[in-house]
Amino acid sequence: MNNKVNIFDTTLRDGEQAAGGSLNLQEKLDIARQLEKLGVDIIEAGFPASSPGDFEAVKLIAREVRQPVICALTRAHPKDVESAWAAVKGAERPRIHIFLSTSDIHLIHQLKKNRDEILAMAREMVAKAKKYTSDIEFSPMDASRTRPQYLYQILEEVITAGATTVNIPDTVGYAIPEEFGRLIAGIFKNVPNIDKAVVSAHCHNDLGLAVANSLAAVKNGARQVECTINGIGERAGNASMEEIVMAIATRKDLFNLTTGVDTRQIYKTSRMVSELTGFPVQPNKAIVGANAFRHESGIHQDGVIKMPITYEIIDPRSVGIPSSKLVLGKLSGRHAFKEHLAEQGYSLNEEDLNRAFAAFKELADKKKSVTDRDIESLLAEERRTVTEVYHLDRIQATCGDCGMATAAVRLIDPKGKACEDAALGTGPVDAVYKAINRIVGVPNSLTEFSVKSVTEGIDAIGEVLIRIEADGVSYTGRGADTDIIVSSAKAYMNALNRMLSSRLRTG
Ligand code: KIV
Ligand code: ZN
């Protein structure tokens, strides 16, 4: 049996379905490009029939990202299949992924169809999609709660109709690893034409077992796993890509398998997805969490200094974790800055480099030591300012325990005009947000606000993450600065700009 496991990344489809996640077109393309660098085999770019935004994203990614297979998801409905094809057909290697529920629970309570009707729909839609492209994936949704005999039958029939990948979803995260492994083994044993298709696993994390179930599937012959960066996705999320890939790499002795992933790109991809979706990574998250390679206990620290392997099963550099050591200082020149970025895998055009260098100099003036983490935060901040409708030009706030908090702001409006206003608030952040609202004038409510420091020390950069809601749609915003009131203002402007630019796009 082939010993390569294909990594099917569904961050842009199942990951984006997570509550509160909303990526714009450019952000989806940026993530897809980074996934290509990471070396995933298949990118599920979206569900074209679900919204015009998804359609456009699949179309754009299909055109621009040429290395991986680009996949479009569709229900088993003729119009949806046509829409999936219309969106993905420009890809170098297009795939259509059809899903249809097969468990009695879904058939009785949701689809209100009998098993024969479902079999006919599955066969017909796979055959229809096959006329467009040879690469067809079929998912019997809620497979882990489907009667095994029926599952075998539908898999056999869709493979006969042309499916080249059969994906086994644990849609509600109900399975237990041993059981899920047995299900995959049962499929190999009981589906006569299974050698004509790749078996895939798609596990959700409702019981915290998505990665364990995916690995059990791989152990039993699955050669594709569907996963997301940082494990984001519906409810408790999907299986986390970085955990699956690193488990396979670290326990080669047990799996004897490989993936095509360049593990040194993992950390950067994780940060980018967290940054753009606004879903923070929990500190104790395996592989990419802030504490994943931090040793607090004296005994562990002693061991790691003597020989890292004593308490470290993965070299942090192998997943691209940037060092928190001093890397550049206030006297570093543009050339050194550029070289350092290149070493870290960033390639910026001249204009972006000039802006980033100016921001670096400003930071180096405020902060004694500039680390890789600071630089990463600074580059993210630069990316954020590109899609501005209103630009935050000046901000001043006063606060304390014996007076009203006040703030004055100056914004540059879309016509380039400077607009100034001031407000009182319950605290400086409230005052700043009220002053901004007086200028921008779009009603919204703040649903989330959090602040964290990028590195240790009193002069550390503070990163603020906020979520605002307007007309039932949620928008995230981030801002970073050594002054957390300024970070808060930047985060709010970032969220407002996302809201305003998406409204401009949809007319
Ligand atoms: O969880 C699920 O069943 C899915 C399918 C669409 C594959 O996401
Ligand atoms: Zn799913």
Could you characterize the architecture of this molecule?
The structure is a single chain. This protein has 507 residues and is α/β, with parallel strands linked by helices. It folds into four domains: 6-277, Alpha-Beta Barrel (TIM Barrel); 291-320, no CATH class; 325-384; 391-505, Alpha-isopropylmalate synthase LeuA, regulatory domain (Double Stranded RNA Binding Domain, 2-Layer Sandwich), CATH 3.30.160.270. It has helices at residues 11-15, 25-38, 52-64, 78-88, 104-111, 115-130, 148-161, 177-190, 210-219, 241-250, 252-255, 266-277, 298-306, 334-343, 350-366, 372-384, 428-440, 484-505; strands spanning 6-9, 42-46, 69-75, 94-101, 136-141, 165-170, 198-203, 224-227, 326-328, 370-371, 391-398, 405-412, 418-425, 445-453, 462-470, 473-481. The strands form four sheets. Strands 1-2-3-4-5-6-7-8 form an eight-stranded parallel β-barrel, surrounded by eight helices. A three-stranded antiparallel sheet has the order 11-12-13. The structure holds 3-methyl-2-oxobutanoic acid and zinc ion. Residues 14, 169, 171, 202, 204 line the site of zinc ion.
Q: What can be said about this structure in brief?
A:
With 507 residues, this protein is of the alpha/beta class. 42% of the residues lie in helices and 20% in strands.
Comma- or semicolon-separated keywords:
4 domains, 507 residues, alpha/beta, binds zinc ion, globular, TIM Barrel, 3-stranded antiparallel sheet, binds 3-methyl-2-oxobutanoic acid
